[in-house]
Amino acid sequence: MKDRFLKIFVLASLISLLACVGGVSSAPDYPNRPIEVIVPYPPGGVAEIVVRPYKEHLQKVLGQPVVFVFKPGAGGAVGTAYVSQARPDGYTILSGSTSPLVLLPLTSKKGLGYTPEDFTYICNLTVNPQVWLVKEDSPYKTMKDFDGSR
User: Fold this and answer.
1) Distance CA 48, CA 118 (A)
2) What domains are there in the chain, each with its CATH number?
3) What is the pTM of this model?
4) Cα gap 22→104, rounded to integer Å
5) What number of other Cβ atoms are within 10 A of residue 96's Cβ?
6) pLDDT tens column, 72-86
7) Cα 48 to Cα 3, 40, 73, 85, 110, distances in angstroms
8) Cα torsion at 56, 60, 62, 67 (round to 10°)?
9) Whole-angstrom distance, CA of residue 96 vs CA of residue 114
10) Do 33 and 87 form a contact (C-beta atoms < 8 A)?
11) To 10 degrees, the CA torsion angle through 7, 12, 14, 20?
């Protein structure tokens, strides 16, 4: 059952990703060189587990090498900032996540070198529900309580 679920999940995710790849660049000869997928976390973790199954299939469909480049640091901000400075030509793609694109911009008091608006959404690879919890007797009860004006 578990293996069947994993196969279905990977296949559905791959179909979703491949449907999105066509819109990455409107150049008629795209792609004509390797594509870098920037993973803003260290190799060997969950982020790599998510993207690794797509490599072979993307290379086959796109006819070009797909290279994973790991740029960890600052909770994903280092790799995310790197992609925000890359040419917007479809050859440098961010394997983004909630932390550097949602949480860090909301909670960082210093500039990150990027804003979420610097990026264009292509497609989802996974869904990862998250919750924020505090101790029951905490003064924080809603997200507005975290605005720093206390």
Assistant:
1) 23
2) 2-146 (3.40.190)
3) 0.70
4) 30
5) 22
6) 999 999 999 999 999
7) 19, 10, 15, 22, 28
8) 30
9) 13
10) no
11) 180
